[in-house]
Write a structure and sequence with these properties.
It holds the Pfam family Glyco_hydro_28. Helices cover about 0% and strands about 55% of the residues. It is an all-beta fold. The strands form 2 sheets. The chain has a 4-stranded parallel beta sheet, with no helix packed on it. The chain has a 3-stranded parallel beta sheet with strand order 2-4-6, with no helix packed on it.
Length: about 110
């Protein structure tokens, strides 16, 4: 996914293999994904959410040069799932961040 302009989007960059009550871990392997040169605005504080299967973790997910400004509601400043005001959330994933980013990377 390259050279995309987003305006006031919800969940701008997301991979979600957590199906909750719909079943167990996904058995679909996700690898070699690129998100590059994505810019604009988001109403979601977790700019990047890469939530992969415990049994088949994501490999080679690259997030490069992503500049998405948060324009959601600012009253009461809720923190993102990653703990910061705006950021990224990764679980069971090998995510490689690079270039210029407008948010903190996933905690190690």
């Amino acid at each position: 996914f390259e050279n995309i302009i987003m305006q006031s989007v919800k969940n701008p960059i997301i991979i979600d293999q957590n199906y909750g009550s719909r079943g167990g871990d996904s058995q679909v392997a996700i690898s070699d994904i690129l998100f590059k040169n994505i810019r604009g605005t988001t109403i979601t504080k977790d700019v990047v959410q890469i939530m992969c299967s415990k049994s088949v973790p994501c490999q080679g997910v690259n997030v490069v040069d992503v500049n998405l400004d948060y324009v959601g509601k600012t009253g009461g400043e809720k923190k993102s799932s990653s703990g910061g005001l705006v950021g990224a959330l990764c679980d069971n994933a090998n995510v490689i961040f690079g270039g210029k980013l407008s948010f903190p990377m996933c905690p190690k």
